[in-house]
TrEMBL record:
InterPro entries in alphabetical order: Kinase-like_dom_sf, Prot_kinase_dom, Ser-Thr/Tyr_kinase_cat_dom, Ser/Thr_Kinases-Pseudokinases
Protein name: Protein kinase domain-containing protein
Single annotated GO MF: protein serine/threonine kinase activity
Entry superkingdom: Eukaryota
A UniProt-annotated Pfam family: PK_Tyr_Ser-Thr
PROSITE patterns associated with the record: PROTEIN_KINASE_DOM
Species name: Diversispora epigaea
Span of domain Protein kinase: 98-373
């Protein structure tokens, strides 16, 4: 299974490399011909996959397993009944199926482990032998949620979101299991060797080219575009710890526990204080209570991810993440780019418009995806007359004079009160969000963006 997913990612990378700039981000999924099912004679709905035959096989097996929870069973059965590919369903997986379980990390709402799944993920049905072919002994990640033994709404919400967000630009979820000791339920997910993007940057920042950075931003924007546009969800906790690294060029979105439909903001005037996340990545209108979670609030988090990819350091790493920082953010305070790091002005301008205090000024993720596709292609194909290529060449010269290595930009000491795991907050009486030097900066920024807009 690991090879299958890697192959899928490589196929997508090849498709991206072949995309014409004019194609931009097509809103429709391409229709592929997967051949004819050997059993029923109907068209396959995926590679080596027939919805009609395989859904019936799953349905015939419904009586042979249970998670112990009716709601979870129904979710699993629903997705198995509508499985169009081998990545479009989830399973109930007994905990005894895992061995060599090792603790990896802890987030705001649970712990993450690595494990070997003895039986492995279903790849396809072997027609001749009449059995499932599986990826025996594959490595997976087990993500537990604190207190989920009682099946919280948040757990079921994340499970549903993962189950329907089956897309190559997000970390695949294979199913769920239950820890027999804590009774917490756990997601069984594809193991990302690079870990979260912050850890990857800390170890590899000096090795990343501008093409690598642009490629990573394109992948992140593609995943968020699928979330916003295809399934109408807002992430609501979009920070770099929820981005997992596959390699130098590819990273995928994870942690959809707080995601909710865009038409159900989940926050009202009498509960504005219920804010979750990592303070530097939370949009000012959410901190202040002046606005609800929206696609634009995810874009603010994307701006901070851009900052960390460009500089190699977390935003506001050297100060406490408390009410004082929330107050400063609402008053227009943003992280400063280190003086020894040269970043193309085009990218700085995009980052700044994404962290604008006014949500309506921030671009959509689809617009950003088109930009990063254009920039990636221009750099990859060495289009020397393009503005992004010229600016990167100039920055590379400056960065040679002031080299960035693991002893400078990515060697930092995080303040003990700078917390980068998601928490809940109850801030009151914060000011209405504003930008520093409001009108002057906004006008200058928009002028530069329009001037440097690269239209294919």
């Amino acid at each position: 299974m690991e090879q299958d997913i890697t192959d899928d990612l490589n196929e997508v990378m090849n498709e991206i490399n072949e995309i014409s700039i004019s194609d931009k981000l097509d809103t429709e999924e391409p229709k592929e011909d997967f051949g004819i099912c050997e059993e029923c004679g109907n068209k396959n709905t995926g590679k080596n996959w027939c919805l009609l035959c395989n859904s019936q096989r799953f349905q015939h097996n419904f009586g042979n397993w249970t998670s112990g929870n009716k709601d979870i069973d129904e979710i699993i059965q629903d997705f198995q009944s509508n499985c169009t590919t081998n990545l479009s369903f989830v399973e109930w997986i007994p905990y005894s199926q895992f061995e060599d379980i090792k603790y990896i990390d802890e987030g705001g709402f649970g712990k993450v482990y690595s494990a070997i799944w003895k039986e492995g993920f279903i790849e396809k049905w072997n027609v001749q032998q009449k059995l499932w072919e599986k990826s025996i002994g594959c490595q997976v990640a087990l993500k537990s949620l604190n207190g989920s033994q009682n099946i919280t709404t948040e757990f079921l919400n994340e499970f549903k979101n993962y189950s329907k967000f089956k897309h190559v630009l997000t970390v695949p979820c294979f199913g769920i299991t239950q820890d027999p000791e804590t009774k917490n339920y756990m997601f069984v997910m594809y193991f990302m060797e690079g870990g979260n993007l912050r850890k990857f940057l800390k170890s590899n920042f000096s090795k990343l080219s501008w093409l690598d950075k642009l490629s990573n931003l394109f992948w992140i924007s593609g995943g968020l575009d699928h979330l916003h546009d295809k399934i109408n969800l807002i992430h609501r906790d979009f920070h770099i710890g929820n981005i997992l690294s596959h390699n130098q060029e590819v990273c995928l979105i994870t942690d959809l526990g707080l995601s909710k439909p865009a038409d159900k903001n989940g926050i009202s005037k009498d509960s504005l204080q219920k804010v979750f996340g990592v303070i530097p990545y939370i949009a000012p209108e959410i901190l202040s209570g002046d606005g609800n979670y929206s696609n634009a609030s995810d874009i603010y988090g994307f701006a901070m991810i851009m900052f960390e990819i460009f500089t190699g350091i977390p935003p506001f790493y050297n100060i406490p993440h408390d009410r004082d920082l929330a107050l400063k953010i609402c008053n227009g305070y943003r992280p400063e780019i280190p003086s020894h790091i040269a970043i193309p002005q085009l990218l700085v301008d995009i980052m700044k418009i994404c962290w604008d205090a006014k949500p309506e000024r921030r671009p959509t993720i689809k617009e950003l995806g088109v930009d990063f596709l254009n920039y990636t292609n221009n750099v990859k194909n060495e289009i020397k007359e393009s503005e992004i290529y010229k600016q990167i060449e100039e920055c590379n010269k400056l960065n040679l004079i002031n080299p960035v290595d693991n002893n400078s930009s990515t060697s930092y000491e995080i303040h003990p009160l700078a917390i980068y795991t998601s928490r809940s907050f109850n801030f009151k009486n914060l000011p209405k969000p504003k930008n520093l030097n409001e009108d002057k900066n906004a006008d200058e920024l928009m002028t530069r963006l329009l001037k440097n807009l690269e239209i294919p």
